[in-house]
Amino acid sequence: MSNANVTSVKDAIKYAKEHEARMVDLKFLDFPGTWQHVTIPAHRLDEDLFEEGQGFDGSSIRGWQPINASDMQIRPDPTTARMDPFASVPTVSFICNVFDPITGQAYSRDPRYVAQKAVNHLKETGIADTAYFGPEAEFFVFDDIRYDLTPHSSFFAVDSQEGTWNTGRDERPNLGYKPSYKGGYFPCPPHDSLFDLRTEISLVLESMGIQVDAHHHEVATGGQSEIGIRFNDMLTMADELQWFKYIVKNVARRNGKTVTFMPKPLYGDNGSGMHTHMSLWKDGKPLFAGEKYAGLSDMALHFIGGIIEHGRSLISLTNPTTNSYKRLVPGYEAPVKLAYSSRNRSAAVRIPMYASSPKAKRIEFRTPDPTCNGYIAFAAMLMAGLDGIERQLDPGDALDKDIYNLPAAEAEKIPSAPGSLEEALEALIEDHEYLLRGDVFTEDVIETWVDYKLENEVDPTRLRPTPLEYQLYFDI
């Protein structure tokens, strides 16, 4: 339920009482980007909770404390109060910030704190006072997911009643209506079998105060979908992205389905991106509208220059999984070239041309995917853009050609996204000074991110044989 009138601790306590909350759920984000939570009885919801917080074991959270310094504390943000739509008894939910209980200081590895510092840094620069973000997090809805890993075997298998691979399956009866590979964009029911599910998700989002713009089937077969939500200021949008994922997954589950935000769960079809729209405003006025290319201002072009300049390191935070780079390949509408254009969806940065109003003028960074940690990814995008503005970086000429069909000599001149997570992390090691300004990111945050990703994702993926390797090499 919407919390539009909750602006203080007293408002939050009143909100919980008005909705007869019996439990209080405290949610916070781990380092990679997954919500964690602890639940307490409603009688504990008082002003002291917002000041003293709730303790937890930081050594059990991915990427955080060692066991010899494990005590941590979460403090609820009263303005984030919402009734959890999936709890069986009335439960008020808060998004929390993480603190060190010894020093009382905010925890530097808390992703929400990173985003808060980025917002404050923006204001301190005097360039703007508000950064608006609008992510489009695509996802797949499956009917079944199975996988297993052992030292001597591994497999995965996903299934969908609308997967084109099931056109010949005996479903007693098989009624057809299964979108083909790359054939899932905008078909009406009965081909779009997820119409009602997306509507149900949309209504739950709206009931939580998250405004839905539109929903539709996406390009891929097997249940790829998109539900667009209205842009918001950066921190609020990062909070709402967490609610978005939570709601999508839980509505799917209560309908006997499962959701993945993996960028590339299927071979041979389009992956899921998270095209992210951005604009800067000051004193209630848009700053990206002007008389330059595609109706942009000089500031907007410099912002794009920062995204392109730092694109390879930025992508380590906006596309943070090994699976991300199975999407970032030519041929599946993936924006692998660090260029900009109006209307051209094959460029990493696009300037949407749907509307001519200055208020609607924005840029769209198309490379990110929904496995990213929204707080960290949004903060990094903002910092890259601000660096471009402060240094007045020239993004070069717009690329309004079909990038995939350019002559090889011309295509080689355009910088490309990294080809792997390891390559992206190497770029982050070499280029992260722009993230450190205003103490938004710290060296510790960067080092921890790189070490965690290498140790827990890159190395295990590199070391494990795959079924494809058996097909290629077993009888060589």
Average pLDDT works out at 94
Poorly predicted ranges (pLDDT <50, ≥5 residues)?
Answer: none
Strand-pairing-aware structural class:
alpha+beta
CATH architecture of the domain at 130-138 and 273-473: 2-Layer Sandwich
What's the alpha carbon Rg, rounded to whole Å? Answer: 23 Å
CATH superfamily of the domain at 130-138 and 273-473: Glutamine synthetase/guanido kinase, catalytic domain
Secondary structure: number of strands: 19
Termini gap: 60 Å
Organism: Persicimonas caeni
Domain GS catalytic: 111-476
Binding site for ATP: 213, 277-279, 345, 359
Keywords: ATP-binding, Cytoplasm, Ligase, Magnesium, Metal-binding, Nucleotide-binding, Phosphoprotein
Describe the model:
The strands form four sheets. Strands 7, 13, 15, 16, 17, 18 and 19 form a seven-stranded mixed beta sheet that branches. Strands 1, 2, 3, 4, 5 and 6 form a six-stranded mixed beta sheet that branches. The protein has a four-stranded antiparallel beta sheet with strand order 11-12-8-14, with helices on one face. The chain has helices spanning 9-18, 47-52, 111-125, 195-207, 234-254, 298-309, 311-318, 324-327, 374-390, 408-411, 421-430, 433-436, 443-463, 467-473; strands at 23-29, 35-41, 54-57, 71-76, 82-83, 91-99, 130-137, 139-142, 144-150, 153-159, 212-217, 224-229, 232-233, 258-260, 274-282, 285-286, 337-342, 347-351, 363-365. Helix 5 (234-254) runs antiparallel to helix 9 and helix 6 (298-309) crosses helix 9 (374-390). Strand 15 and strand 16 (285-286) form a beta hairpin. It contains 14 helices and 19 strands. Among the domains are: 9-107, Roll (Ubiquitin-like (UB roll)), CATH 3.10.20.70; 130-138 and 273-473, 2-Layer Sandwich (Creatine Kinase, Chain A, domain 2). It is of the alpha+beta class and 476 residues long. The model has no long low-confidence stretch (mean pLDDT 94). It is globular and about 65 Å long. 32% of the residues lie in helices and 22% in strands.
